[in-house]
Design brief:
By secondary structure, this protein is mainly α. Helices cover 71% and strands 0% of the residues. The protein has five helices and no strands. α1 packs across α2, α1 runs antiparallel to α5 and α2 crosses α5.
Length: 124
């Protein structure tokens, strides 16, 4: 087995785990936020079904300063309201969001980097 295949397999395993957490986070946290009339319209723009799960996870997982910067720009309608969501979630929801969001982003970026390095011939 080559180094590329091993590393790509590890990234795929982490991606599968994050997709499992995607379902759990959507059922546990985002369903609760969708039912709440106060937070229903503050989950950000959904490009596709389930995109609000990513918006909520990003709002809970990224540092407040970063998310405040995103919310103050012209494209603020794309992002969830981090203060309102943080107020209506508990610490368990935040832990799941952090693990889910960063494992999804990390595995996706690692896969892209591995494919790029393989195309350049740096991995065998």
């Amino acid at each position: 087995m080559s180094t590329f295949s091993f590393l790509l397999g590890c990234c795929a395993a982490v991606m599968f785990f994050s997709l499992f957490l995607y379902v759990v986070f959507g059922q546990v946290t985002v369903r609760k936020l969708r039912k709440n009339p106060e937070t229903k319209r503050e989950l950000g723009l959904a490009f596709a079904s389930g995109w609000d799960i990513l918006n909520v996870a990003q709002a809970l997982a990224t540092p407040r300063k970063v998310h405040k910067f995103l919310e103050s720009g012209q494209l603020s309608f794309l992002h969830a309201n981090s203060e309102l969501i943080a107020k209506n979630t508990n610490s368990f929801d935040k832990v799941i969001a952090i693990i889910f969001f960063w494992s999804l982003i990390g595995s996706a970026m690692s896969m892209l980097a591995l494919i790029g390095l393989n195309k350049l011939g740096l991995l065998s």
